[in-house]
Specification:
Length: 196
């Protein structure tokens, strides 16, 4: 019982809904979220042509979604929203105990320093590996993969809130990280809807 969409497409829509859960009073943040929503609604995805400030050039570069998935139906949209809300709730518990502003600044600087062609998942993986070494009551009884997922989501959110123009780059990195590292875990628990 889930979407008629690929795992990457589900991930992209969930990440968008996850960001939309934030009530951030930053015009640039809101504009970047709207651009991302438009890209997803139109069935387009950012490609590797991201400018050095992390901003995607205007207009979609290519499409690689099925046209019927690019426009999530209302049922899918509600499922995306529910999963995102669950991730926000879980992430907020983790956020209070692990992720701090200095860490986000390091993540931002590392992402700004890489070449456009480089895979940002290397940076995200290293940051998450560092964070998982910290003792934490919130994550003590969680499966390791769930901790990785929540840390990835929180790094994504906090980075975009701090530096909205990095949204295209961090969005792509987060989708790639989740697909490469956590897709089997998410599918083995029965899909995104079973993240609890």
């Amino acid at each position: 019982m889930f979407w008629d969409a690929s795992f990457d497409e589900q991930t992209q829509h969930i990440l968008l809904k996850f960001l939309q859960q934030n009530k951030v009073e930053n015009r640039t943040y809101q504009q970047e979220i709207q651009k991302l929503e438009s890209e997803l609604r139109n069935g387009s995805r950012f490609d590797d042509d991201i400018q050095t400030d992390g901003h995607c050039p205007s207009g979609p570069q290519h499409t690689d979604f099925r046209s019927d998935v690019g426009q999530a139906n209302q049922g899918d949209d509600e499922l995306y929203r529910m999963v995102a809300a669950q991730l926000v709730e879980l992430g907020d518990e983790l956020d209070q105990s692990i992720i701090n502003r200095n860490l986000i600044e390091q993540f931002i600087h590392a992402n700004e320093a890489i070449q456009l062609q480089e895979d940002g998942t290397r940076i995200m993986s290293a940051m998450i590996a560092h964070l998982t070494t910290q003792q934490n009551d919130v994550t003590r009884d969680m499966p390791q993969e769930k901790v990785f997922l929540l840390l990835a989501m929180m790094l994504f959110k906090k980075t975009v809130v701090e530096k909205p123009l990095l949204l295209p780059r961090i969005f792509k990195t987060t989708v790639q990280y989740i697909s490469n590292t956590l897709q089997n875990y998410i599918q083995n628990i029965g899909g995104w809807q079973n993240i609890q």
